[in-house]
Design goal:
alpha/beta, Urease, subunit C, domain 1, 6-stranded parallel β-sheet, 33% helix, 20% strand, disordered N terminus
Length: 417
C-alpha cells in the first residue's frame, strides 16, 4: 500500500485545502510491504446499517475489510492503528457535489472568463477534493464538469488525495434539443466515460423552478440512460418537475424543494431515489454574499435562497416521514462549501431525522443508490476499506461529525490521530 504524506502535497494545495479543514490530524507514511495487513482498533464501531459494536477490531488487507471482530488481533508484520475511544464508521458518501467550483483570482466563482492558469485551476480543485476527504467524505458523485475525468483518474491512482469520484461529465439542460439529439448525447456521454447522467427538468430556484423539459424529452433522456446501463439524476425544484421526472422513470431526484406529499408518495411508489438539500447549499451562498454577488447573484437571489430554507426543511421532514421513500445524502457543495459537507447532516437532524438515520442515508443508502452497495457504505467483510473515525458518539450528537480524526479510503490511511 502507498500512503500519502504532507511532503508530497504542494504548499498551494495545502493553503487551498485547509480553508475549511481543521489541521488536527496528520498524514502518515508507511514502510509496510504491499499486502501487509492493517489492524484498526476503536472503542465503538458503527457498521453503516444501524448496528454498533463496542471495542471493535477491523483487519484491512489489499484495500478490503478482511475481518471485523471484538477479539484482540495480532498478525505478524501488521500495522496497527489505535483509535482509542473514537467511533469508527464507514466513509461518508455525498451524492451531489461540484468539486470543479472554486473562487478564482478575481474573487468570483470560477468561469470560462476567470483567466486562471490551468495549474491554478487544478490546485484549487485538488484543494476542494482534499478538504472533502478530510471532512470524512470518501466517495462523491459530481454532477458534473469535464474536469471530473482527470480528477477521477488522479484520485483513483492516488496522485492527489481525495474521495472516489463518480461523474456525469456535464449536465443536459437544453430544452431546444430534439429527442433524437438528447438520446445521442446520452450515448456520447457513456462513450466518454460518464458514470451517471445529470439533467435539468426544471429551472433554478431563482427562476421559480418551473419544468423545462417536456415529458417526452424526460422519458427519452432517462430511458436512454437506462438502456446504456446508466443512472439518471434530475435537478427538479417544482412539484410539477418532480412529478414529471418520476413518471419518466428517472433514477434519482435532486432538490425537490417545492415537492408536496403527493410527489413524495409518488416517488416512493415508483422506487425513485430522493436527494433533497436542507441547508448547506442555500446557506453557503448567503454566507459568502460578497463572492456570489460578484458572480452575478442579485439581492433577489439571496432573498430566494433565505426563503427556501424553511420550505426545504418542512419538505424534508415530510419526506423522511413518507413510507417507502428512499432518502439519501447529498449536499450540492459548491465553491466555499467543500469540507463543510457534514453541515447538511446537522440540518437534517434539526429537521427531525434521527442521527443514526442521517448517517445511514450518507453510507449504506447512498452506496446502494449509486450502484455501489455491494462494496461501499458498510463495515463488513469483503467491503472496500473506506473508514473514518470521530471523537464522540454521532448517534447521540451528530455534531461530533465535525471531529474527524481518522480517514482511510480503499485501505490507504490519509489521516490518523
Amino acid at each position: 500500500m502507498r500512503f500519502i504524506s504532507a511532503a508530497v502535497i504542494p504548499s498551494a494545495f495545502v493553503l487551498a485545502a485547509t480553508a475549511n479543514v481543521r489541521p488536527a490530524r496528520s498524514q502518515i507514511t508507511s514502510s509496510a510491504p504491499a499486502g501487509a495487513p492493517t489492524i484498526i482498533h476503536a472503542g465503538t464501531l458503527l457498521d453503516g446499517r444501524g448496528a454498533s459494536t463496542r471495542n471493535a477490531y477491523v483487519v484491512v488487507r489489499n484495500g478490503k475489510i478482511e475481518r471485523v471482530t471484538t477479539a484482540p488481533v495480532t498478525i505478524s508484520g501488521a500495522t496497527t492503528i489505535e483509535l482509542g475511544s473514537a467511533t469508527l464508521l464507514p466513509g461518508l458518501i455525498d451524492a451531489h457535489v461540484h468539486p470543479g467550483w472554486y473562487v478564482d483570482r478575481q474573487g468570483k466563482r470560477n468561469s470560462q472568463r476567470s483567466g486562471d492558469t490551468p495549474a491554478q485551476a487544478a490546485l484549487a480543485r485538488a484543494g476542494n477534493l482534499y478538504a472533502t476527504l478530510m471532512a470524512g467524505v470518501t466517495t462523491i458523485q459530481s454532477v458534473g464538469g469535464p474536469e471530473d475525468l482527470d480528477l477521477r483518474d488522479a484520485t483513483a491512482r492516488e496522485l492527489i488525495p481525495g474521495p472516489r469520484i463518480l461523474t456525469s461529465i456535464t449536465q443536459i439542460s437544453s430544452a431546444r434539443m430534439s429527442v433524437d439529439s438528447l438520446r445521442l448525447m446520452v450515448q456520447q456521454l457513456k462513450t466518454q466515460g460518464a458514470d451517471v447522467i445529470k439533467l435539468f427538468a426544471s429551472a433554478g430556484l431563482g427562476a421559480g423552478g418551473q419544468q423545462t423539459f417536456s415529458n417526452a424529452k424526460l422519458e427519452a433522456i432517462c430511458g436512454e440512460a437506462k438502456a446504456q446501463g446508466l443512472r439518471s439524476v434530475v435537478h427538479a425544484i417544482s412539484a410539477a418537475s418532480v412529478r414529471a421526472a418520476t413518471l419518466a422513470g428517472c433514477t434519482e431526484i435532486e432538490h425537490g424543494t417545492f415537492a408536496t406529499k403527493t410527489e413524495l408518495e409518488l416517488m416512493a411508489s415508483h422506487g425513485t431515489i430522493f436527494d433533497p438539500q436542507v441547508c448547506l447549499v442555500f446557506q453557503n451562498y448567503i454566507d459568502h454574499r460578497d463572492v456570489y454577488s460578484r458572480s452575478g447573484f442579485t439581492p433577489q437571489s439571496f432573498e430566494a435562497l433565505a426563503n427556501a430554507i424553511p420550505v426545504a426543511t418542512a419538505m424534508f421532514k415530510q419526506a423522511i416521514e413518507t413510507p417507502g421513500l428512499r432518502v439519501i445524502f447529498g449536499t450540492d457543495a459548491v465553491a466555499l462549501a467543500h469540507g463543510r459537507n457534514a453541515d447538511e447532516l446537522f440540518c437534517r437532524v434539526r429537521a427531525g431525522q434521527r442521527p443514526v438515520d442521517a448517517l445511514i442515508a450518507a453510507t449504506t443508502a447512498a452506496a446502494a443508490a449509486l450502484g455501489l452497495g455491494d462494496r461501499l457504505g458498510q463495515i463488513a467483510n469483503g467491503y472496500d476499506a473506506d473508514l473514518i473515525a470521530v471523537r464522540g458518539d454521532p448517534t447521540r450528537d451528530i455534531t461530533t461529525m465535525r471531529n474527524i480524526v481518522f480517514v482511510m479510503r480503499g485501505g490507504v490511511p490519509f489521516a490518523v490521530p
